[in-house]
Write a structure and sequence with these properties.
With 592 residues, this protein is mainly alpha-helical. The chain has a domain of 137 residues. Helix content is 54%, strand content 6%. Strands 1, 2, 3, 4, 5 and 6 form a six-stranded mixed β-sheet that branches. Strand 2 and strand 3 form a beta hairpin. Helix 8 runs antiparallel to helix 15 and helix 10 packs antiparallel against helix 12. The protein is globular. The protein starts with a helix and ends in a 10-residue tail after the last helix. Keywords: Metal-binding, Nucleus, Zinc, Zinc-finger.
Length: 592
C-alpha cells in the first residue's frame, strides 16, 4: 500500500491506520517507521537487488560475449533551470530476456540530479547505475533516452494531460500533476549529448505524433476542427454540473477520472461524442450552457465543425492509434515497427476522405521520418525473425518510381540477404564446441582432398601411358569433375544443403500470440535463436503515456510525502518486484 501510493513510512504510525489494524488484525504488533524502513531495506537491498543482479549475469552469460544483451530506457524529468522548482530526476529501466525466456523490464534507479552541467551529470549517472548492477558498456544494446515531460506533452492529440489530469472532482493529484508536467525544459540543447553508452534509439511513438503535428500545421482546417472538439471535452471535464447533465440525458461521460486516464482517452471521448444521438444532445447542452453562463469564464466553446468532419478526421487518425497501441505494449514491440509503419501507410493510402491534402501530408511525413529507419539492419532482422511476420511486409521487388515520396520498404531479397549476413557472422563466431566440430570436419575434408589429388596424379600418369585402356572416351572420372558443364552431375548432398534460415522461412507462420514461446523452444535454429534473443526485449517506444503518467504521479506523491530519493527508489523496486511475481504465467513464459 505504501509503495503503490508513495506514502511516507510514518503513515503506519497514524491514529487512523492503527485503529484500522486493531480492527482487522488485533494480534498484529504495533508497527513503527523504523521497523518499516528496515524491512524495506532488507527486502530490496538483500533480496530484490541481488536476485536481479543474478538474473542479469545469467542473461549475459547466455549471450555472445555478453554483448548488446541489455537495453535501457532513460527518463529525465527536468524543468526550466532558469526558475528551478525541483531537482531533475532520472529513472532508469532495463530491458532483457531472462535465462528462462521471460521479457523483463525492471525499474532499477530513481535519482536526483543537479541542474548544473546537466548533460555531464546525466551521462555519469547512467554509467554509475549500470556499474552498480555489474553491467559494463559493451553489454548495452540500445539506449532510449527520453525527456519524460515533453513526451507526455507530445501525446496531447490522443490524451491532453492538461485536460485529463486536471482535478474537477476533488482528486488530490490533479492540479499538482499539471503544475509538475507544465514546468518543462526549454528546447535549446539536448541533455543527452554526452551519453556514449549503447546505440541511440528513437521513440517511434514520439515520432509518429510529430508526423501528425507537422501535417496539422499544413492543414489548418483539420487543426481547427480538432481544437473545437478538444475544447468541448475540456468544458465537460471542467464542469461537474454539465457533465452530470450529459450523463443523465445520454448515459455518456466524456471525462474519465484521472486515475483511469489512458494514453488515448481523448480519442475514446471523441468516438463517444460523434455518435449521432450524443452529438445532438451535446450541441443542445452547449447552447443551453451558453444561455445560462454568468460570466465569460463559464461560457462553453463554440463548435462550427460538423459531425461528419470529425468522423472523417478520426478515420485518418485511427490507423495511428492502432500503430501506437501495438508499439507501446510491454511485450515484443521492436519486430512490429516495420509492419506497423507499412500497414499504417497502406491504410492511409486506401482511405476515402475529403481531407486529401491532410492525408498526403501524413503519408509524406511517414516517409520523411521513417524511410531511413525501416532500412536499419536490426529492425529488418527483428521483423524477419518474428515467426508471426517473417517476409510478409517486404515487397517481392523494388516498388515503382511513382511511389517516390511515400514509405517504401526494402524488397524481400534484400531483407533476406541482411538476415543471411547476420547468420553468417554469428556462425563465424560460434561457441568453441561448434568450432571444434568445424575443425574436425575441415581436417576430414582436407584429408579427402589430399587423397583425391594423389588419385588424380596416378590416374593422369596411367592415362598418359596407356591410351588403349578402357577409358575409350579419353576422360578420367576426375577430369570429368573439372568441367563446368558437368556441374549438374555433382552429388545431391552438396547442392541440397539447406540453411537454418531456409528451414525457418519454409515453415508456416506462427499462429500463437507469443513469439517468445516460439524461440524458447526453437533449439533447431541455434544461430537464429541467439540473434533473436538480443532483439526481443528492445523497446520500440519509451512506453508512452500509460507508463510515464503513473511515474509522474509517483514523483508528485513522493514529493508531497517528502520521501528521500533512496526511499522512493526502494519503493519503486519493491512495487516492480510484486508485479513480476503476480504477472508470472504457469508456463514460465510471458504472453506477448
Amino acid at each position: 500500500m505504501i509503495a503503490e501510493d508513495m506514502l511516507p513510512l510514518s503513515f503506519i504510525e497514524g491514529a487512523g491506520f492503527r485503529s484500522f489494524m486493531s480492527t482487522v488484525r488485533p494480534e498484529c504488533n504495533k508497527l513503527s517507521q523504523r521497523v518499516m524502513g528496515l524491512q524495506l531495506y532488507d527486502d530490496v537491498e538483500r533480496t530484490i537487488k541481488p536476485q536481479l543482479i543474478r538474473d542479469l549475469k545469467a542473461c549475459l552469460a547466455k549471450s555472445k560475449d555478453g554483448e548488446s544483451a541489455i537495453h535501457v530506457t532513460f527518463d529525465l524529468w527536468a524543468g526550466d533551470d532558469a526558475h528551478p522548482v525541483e531537482d531533475p530526476i532520472v529513472v532508469v529501466q532495463l530491458h532483457f530476456v531472462s535465462e528462462s525466456w521471460q521479457i523483463r523490464r525492471p525499474i532499477v534507479a530513481f535519482r536526483h540530479l543537479s541542474h548544473k552541467n546537466l548533460s555531464t551529470a546525466v551521462a555519469r549517472e547512467l554509467e554509475g547505475v549500470l556499474l552498480s548492477y555489474g553491467i559494463f558498456p559493451r553489454s548495452i544494446g540500445y539506449v532510449l533516452a527520453n525527456q519524460a515531460k515533453e513526451t507526455l506533452a507530445g501525446n496531447s492529440l490522443f490524451c491532453d494531460y492538461k485536460i485529463m489530469c486536471s482535478s474537477s472532482r476533488g482528486e488530490p493529484d490533479g492540479d499538482e500533476m499539471v503544475s509538475f508536467l507544465s514546468n518543462q525544459m526549454p528546447g535549446t540543447e539536448s541533455p543527452f549529448s554526452e551519453l556514449q553508452i549503447g546505440n541511440s534509439a528513437t521513440c517511434v511513438a514520439h515520432t509518429l505524433q510529430l508526423v501528425i503535428k507537422e501535417a496539422l500545421q499544413n492543414s489548418r482546417v483539420v487543426e481547427n476542427v480538432i481544437s473545437q472538439v478538444h475544447n468541448v471535452v475540456a468544458f465537460f471535464r471542467s464542469s461537474a454540473y454539465w457533465s452530470e447533465v450529459l450523463m443523465k440525458e445520454c448515459n455518456v461521460s466524456l471525462c474519465p477520472s484521472s486515475s483511469s486516464c489512458r494514453w488515448n482517452s481523448m480519442m475514446l471521448s471523441l468516438r463517444r461524442m460523434v455518435q449521432e444521438s450524443t452529438w445532438s444532445a451535446i450541441m443542445t447542452l452547449l447552447a443551453q450552457a451558453r444561455i445560462e453562463a454568468n460570466d465569460t469564464a463559464s461560457v462553453p466553446p463554440l463548435v462550427i465543425g460538423k459531425r461528419e468532419q470529425v468522423i472523417d478526421i478520426l478515420g485518418l487518425l485511427e490507423p495511428f492509434e492502432e500503430a501506437l497501441q501495438v508499439l507501446q505494449g510491454n511485450g515484443v514491440t521492436f519486430s512490429f515497427i516495420i509492419p506497423s509503419l507499412i500497414g499504417l501507410d497502406k491504410a492511409l493510402e486506401s482511405l476515402v476522405t475529403n481531407y486529401t491534402h491532410f492525408n498526403k501530408a501524413l503519408r509524406t511525413g511517414l516517409h520523411t521520418h521513417f524511410q531511413s529507419m525501416i532500412q536499419q539492419k536490426d529492425m529488418i532482422i527483428a521483423a524477419v525473425l518474428d515467426p508471426r511476420i517473417k517476409l510478409q511486409p517486404f515487397p517481392d521487388a523494388k516498388q515503382e518510381v511513382d511511389n517516390t515520396g511515400f514509405l517504401s520498404p526494402p524488397p524481400k531479397h534484400l531483407a533476406r540477404t541482411i538476415v543471411e549476413a547476420a547468420v553468417e557472422s554469428m556462425g563465424a563466431s560460434a561457441s568453441p564446441p561448434v568450432e571444434a566440430d568445424k575443425d574436425q570436419t575441415s581436417k576430414e575434408v582436407n584429408q579427402q582432398n589430399v587423397e583425391e589429388k594423389s588419385q588424380d596424379s596416378v590416374t593422369m600418369e596411367v592415362s598418359s601411358g596407356s591410351s588403349d585402356d578402357n577409358n575409350s572416351d579419353g576422360l578420367s572420372g576426375n577430369n570429368l569433375k573439372r568441367k563446368s558443364i558437368f556441374n549438374f552431375l555433382q552429388p545431391a548432398a552438396k547442392s541440397m544443403k539447406t540453411s537454418e534460415l531456409d528451414v525457418y522461412l519454409s515453415e508456416p507462420l506462427w499462429e500463437s500470440n507469443s513469439s517468445v514461446l516460439f524461440w524458447k523452444s526453437a533449439t533447431r535454429f541455434p544461430l537464429l535463436q541467439r540473434i533473436t534473443k538480443n532483439l526481443l526485449a528492445v523497446p520500440a517506444t519509451s512506453g508512452g503515456f500509460d507508463r510515464l503518467c503513473p511515474m509522474a504521479a509517483c514523483i508528485v506523491r513522493a514529493k508531497r510525502s517528502r520521501l528521500p530519493s533512496h526511499t522512493t527508489e526502494r519503493l519503486l523496486l519493491y512495487k516492480n518486484s510484486l508485479k513480476t511475481k503476480t504477472g508470472k504465467k504457469p508456463s514460465g513464459v510471458t504472453k506477448h
